[in-house]
Design a protein that fits this description.
- About 60% of the residues lie in helices and about 10% in strands.
- The chain has two domains: about 180 residues, Beta-Lactamase, CATH 3.30.450; about 110 residues, Orthogonal Bundle (Arc Repressor Mutant, subunit A).
- It contains 14 helices and five strands.
- It is globular, with a radius of gyration of 20 Å.
- Strands 1-4-3-2-5 form a five-stranded mixed sheet, with helices on both faces.
Length: about 300
């Protein structure tokens, strides 16, 4: 099948899962490959429950980031099998790793679902060390769907099928775009995959199997930029997207895009976009998300 056929097959499967279980499907993308090729998937838990819960208590958003970026990531680093998680807000989600050429490029989250008082989580579930359920979260969770015992295994199976189909989509997208990657594409891929890390020109040179001087020449030839400028632009571009599309705080956006100091991030962001990060977010916040949250609250 061609790319478009693979994408439509994935979209039908995702739509069926949402309809059957009245849930959301979102993705944490580690490589930019998913969000670039599957536009319909929301990123960073943009569902009404999670978005409102993050605003309902002190440090709620920070605990979410620490749980998903810490405990969940650590689990997948040791064992790549899908599993269930119970977060500190007291809700349940399926965690499905997404692979491309045997490399973990992201996570699909399916949920959220309500936990019944007497419900026992499936074996192998990841459970937050402490539950911090606010009155607002408890009120919202009453509207979430409940799962039967058989639903747990069914949803994980469906999630694995979706992840496998998503891999097919990504492989077709790459194959249709560039049959044999040239140096320019290799450089772009390197920055897309590593912009949030502490990287230097030597790391790119090692990736290309070239000397640093030759690598610098290629950067000037293809992009008319040096390594540091290109890295900065990539980080700011991703930060700009997160400010528009996520509920993460400005400090968290800075950290997620590779900036070690919040003050420095705010300074270079204003220099690039002519507005502070806070002003930019308020100006470009998506009205559709705001309307959805307002109607849910």
């Amino acid at each position: 099948m061609e790319y478009q056929q693979e994408l439509e097959l994935f979209q039908r499967g995702a739509k069926l899962a949402r309809q059957l279980y009245n849930c959301h499907i979102c993705v944490h993308d580690f490589s930019s490959q998913i969000v670039e090729n599957v536009k319909e998937l929301p990123v960073h838990h943009l569902n009404p429950f999670c978005a409102i819960s993050k605003r309902s208590g002190v440090n709620y958003e920070r605990r979410c980031v620490q749980f998903d970026g810490g405990a969940v990531a650590d689990r997948l680093a040791k064992n790549t099998k899908p599993f269930w998680k119970l977060c500190h807000s007291g809700i349940i989600e399926a965690v499905i790793p997404v692979f491309m050429d045997n490399r973990n490029v992201g996570i699909l989250f399916i949920g959220p679902f309500k936990q019944r008082t007497t419900q026992i989580m499936p074996e192998g579930s990841l459970i937050a060390s402490s539950l911090k359920i606010t009155d607002k979260s408890a009120e919202l969770s009453r509207h979430l769907p409940e799962l039967s015992l058989s639903d747990f295994s069914t949803i994980l199976t469906m999630g694995k099928l979706l992840a496998r189909q998503l891999e097919n989509v990504l492989l077709k997208a790459v194959a249709s775009d560039v049959r044999v990657k040239d140096r320019k594409q290799q450089i772009e891929d390197f920055f897309n995959e590593n912009f949030h890390r502490n990287i230097a020109l030597g790391d790119l040179a090692e990736r290309l199997c070239l000397s640093e001087s030759r690598t610098f020449q290629l950067l000037k030839k293809y992009f008319d930029q040096g390594f540091c400028i290109m890295l900065m632009n990539k980080r700011l571009l991703r930060a700009e997207k997160l400010l528009r599309m996520s509920m993460f705080s400005i400090g968290q956006v800075a950290t997620m895009t590779g900036f070690q100091h919040n003050e420095y991030f705010c300074r270079v962001f204003r220099r690039k976009y002519g507005k502070s990060a806070r002003e930019y977010r308020m100006l470009h916040a998506k009205g559709s998300l705001k309307n959805k949250l307002d109607s849910f609250a």
